[in-house]
Here is the input.
Amino acid sequence: MSNKETKPKRKRSFRDRPDGRYVKAPGLQTVMGYLLPKRTDCEVYMHTTIDATKLVEYLEEKNKAHPEYKTTVFHAAITAMARMIKERPLMNRFIQGYRMYERDEISISFVAKRQFKDEAEETLLVVKAQENDTLDKISRRIVKELRRERKSEHATGGIDELLDKFAALPRPILMAAMSIIRCMDFWGKNPKAFVEGNPNYTTILCANLGSIKAPAVYHHLNNYGTNSIFVTIGTFHDEEKLMEDGTKEIRKVVDFGAILDERIADGFYFARSLKLIEHIFAHPELLDRPLSEPSNYNFE
Here is the structure.
C-alpha cells in the first residue's frame, strides 16, 4: 500500500481563511475543538531515537562532490519533514476559531542565532517547500537565508523588525494591540505582515538543539497562530543497537521530539508519520527525489 494520499482541489468557500481551507472535521474532533479550545490543552508528546548512520554516510559522499558547500543533517531533517507532510496531509492541518483547516502550502520554520554568543539576537527563518524541491534545493535556500541574516547582528526587516516595533510600545497600548491581534487571529483576519515569516503560522516549528550540543526536549505549542507541530532535534551520538540479524553494532543516532495538537489527527496517524521519517533516514536517496514523487513506503 502506498502512503501517497491525494484529494481533489476545490474552490475556496466563505469558511476558508487566507492561510487554510476549511475542513469538515469528524464529530469527535469537532467536539474536542469546543471542549478543549486551547492548543496547549491538547498536546501530545512523541519521542524517538532515529538511526541516522546511513544518512550521515550519504551526506559525507554528497559533500565530497562540492567541498566548498556543506549539506548538513539538519538540512536533511527539514527535507524529510517536508516530504512526510507532503505524503501525510492530515499533518498539515490546524484548528483555529473552533474550526479545522488545511494549509495549501508546506512550511517549516526555525530559529537561528545570528552569532553563537549568549547576547546575540535570534532570527526567524521559514522554508516553504515546493513540488519540485529536493535536498539540494532546500539546503541551498537555507544556507542563502542564513548567510543573509548573519551579515548583521540585528534584525534588518521582516517579522523580526515588526516584533521590535511592537515591543517598543507602552505596556497598556501593547496589551490592547495584542488583544486585537488575537481577535483577528481567531477569525483569520490578521494582516499578511503579521503572518508572513511568522513561525506561529507554519506547518512545523523546528528547534535544532543539536547545533548547541543540547538534547531534544519537550516544548509547548502556542495558542496564538496556527502551528500544530513543534519538533526538536537533539545531538548526534553513538549508541549500541540490536540489528535484525541479532548482532549488535555501534550506530549514529539522533533524538527526535515532537509535540502535536491531538485534535488534527489520531495517534495511529501520528505514529505512522513518524515511521515515515525513520524510513527516509534509512533510505536517504529519497531526499534527492522531488517532493512530488512519493516514497512508496509500505506501512504493512
